[in-house]
Amino acid sequence: MTPDNDASTQRAALRMAFVREHLGTTATAPSAASSDAGFRSYWRSGDGHGHSAIVMDSPPELEDVRPWLRLHQLLDDGGVRVPQILARDVTSGLLLLEDLGGPTLLQTLDRDNAAHWFAQALEQLLRIQRIPPPDWLPRYDAALVRREFGLFEEWFLRRHLGVELDATEQAEMAQLADVLVDAFLGQPQILVHRDFMPRNLMPLPDGVAVLDFQDAVSGPMAYDVLCMVKDAFTSWPAAQVDAWISAYLEAAAAAGLPLPDAAHFRRDFDLIGVQRHLKVLGIFARLHHRDGKSRYVADAARFITYLMQVMPIYPELAPLQALLQRHVLPRVPAMALPA
């Protein structure tokens, strides 16, 4: 047996012992429910009497479960709908969670129900944004913005496409990083989920529940709105995106959040989006080449399209537009988005 197989067998045995301890000796062997881009995995087990629960498996040597628990408590205290914790073994990195069902919001969204579900998601987002960021929460500071920005060149351009930027291009990218840092730091800083999108929301009869919040930071208020309306895995017509942004601004103002004026918010929204789109391209390439998780890179064209939509609006993005046209579009064409 290889070391990887041995570790997998040991984790399976730990999960089985954990569910039997908390669901009883009739508990079924946990079956894979889902996984994410990190090291966590999720397993469904039943008690043999028609009730089920989810095991979150976070191997301690790979991903400490305590930051997740701390953020869970923060969100729960703030009235955000998060999965209920039924049992925990922090030492082993195992949690037993409320089973919220099968499909995520991403899997159930369509044009007919989008208005309803986006309204439910907005309600939860505003609850998140009204929670004062605690002092222990990491900040979306200049160093983090630049580090994420660098993933695009390191992993997408160099590793995935085999592109090496020349000195002029590197200087232009450094100037762009300054512009994006200013957009991030110039906005009101609030609690940011950092991956608030349909894939991380669960539809429920009374609204939506919020998942995958472990990377939350104190950062710009436009970030989570951007994640929701310019999703990694599905795209919406530009007019619909504009309508959702307007609905957010109206609701955020009513909630007393510290909004800039609409034009300033939209500029920051677009520039913050440029950083996120470039970062995600880098992360998807890294998942493919380093981690063997290749399904994500298929959505690279979506992010290139998001970039191509925004770059002509802002003169400071002209060097990036030229770079994409020179190095990226010939290799990864943009995709057609819904009208």
**With helices defined by DSSP (H or I, 4 residues minimum), what is the helix count?**
11
Q: Provide the helix percentage.
A: 40-55%
* Spatial gap, N to C terminus: 53 Å
Name the beta content range. Answer: 5-15%
CATH topology of the largest domain: Aminoglycoside 3'-phosphotransferase, Chain: A, domain 2
**CATH domain class name of the largest domain:** Alpha Beta
Identify the overall geometry. Answer: globular
Short description:
It is built from eleven helices and nine strands. The protein has 339 residues and is of the alpha+beta class.
Describe this structure in words.
This protein has helices at residues 3-23, 66-77, 105-108, 114-129, 142-160, 167-186, 222-229, 238-254, 262-289, 300-310, 318-328, and strands at residues 31-35, 41-46, 52-57, 85-89, 94-98, 189-192, 201-204, 207-210, 217-220. The protein is of the alpha+beta class and 339 residues long. The protein folds into 2 domains: 3-98, 2-Layer Sandwich (Phosphorylase Kinase, domain 1), CATH 3.30.200; 105-328, Aminoglycoside 3'-phosphotransferase, Chain: A, domain 2 (Alpha-Beta Complex), CATH 3.90.1200.10. The strands form 3 sheets. Strands 1-2-3-5-4 form a 5-stranded antiparallel β-sheet, covered by helices on one side. A hairpin with a 2-residue loop joins strand 7 (201-204) and strand 8. The N and C termini lie far apart (53 Å). The mean pLDDT is 93.
